[in-house]
Amino acid sequence: MDELTIESTGETVGEAKWAALRELEQRCPGLDKAAVRFEVLSEGERGLLGVGYAPARVLALLPAEAVQAAREALEEGGIAADAHALVSRIVAALGLDARVDVREDEETVVVTCSGPDVALLIGRHGQTIDAIQYLLNAIGHRTYGDERKEVVVDAAGYRERRRATLESLALRSAERVLATGESEGLEPMTAVERKVVHLCLKDVEGVATTSEGTEPNRYVVVLPG
Fold it and tell me: pTM higher than 0.70 for the full model?
């Protein structure tokens, strides 16, 4: 199998490299970005007062063995490969500078994104990354049925940080409910976040939880139980 090369341009060398990498990902989903080699053909020129501008030009090369590895991974299929390919396409479509990695165990597939643009992938209160995760699980349910695994999409450790925040919030709310005997509604959350709260308080004596409201403003209510 032949190597894959892309020549690309940009206002800077960095922009030209990113453009080339995006095109490589579209042509070879699932590629290992670390395997890509770059050759700077021209660093570009701005010219005096903007006159005589010449873009930076780079050549990106993906070795034949890396091309083969990416294609074999896709051909093997499975929910992990599907998840990697879909998130890679979403990242490329959004024009984000992010690397996509996947790990799989007996119960879960975890897709992890890293890079300078992951904040945009996470979105406000995690709405974007939760939507991506919901989409992957919906596809997995429809495609693999009972053989599906739960897919978790994470970026820059967001899931763990958000989980810790939600659990702390839930426990403080439970303490107030136990002290006052009055129910307390929490802030609107996604379905993923509400599940974290429900699980956190499931075994706390004296309180119960329920969800109320309609999407996207559905929230958890902690009540005496």
Answer: no
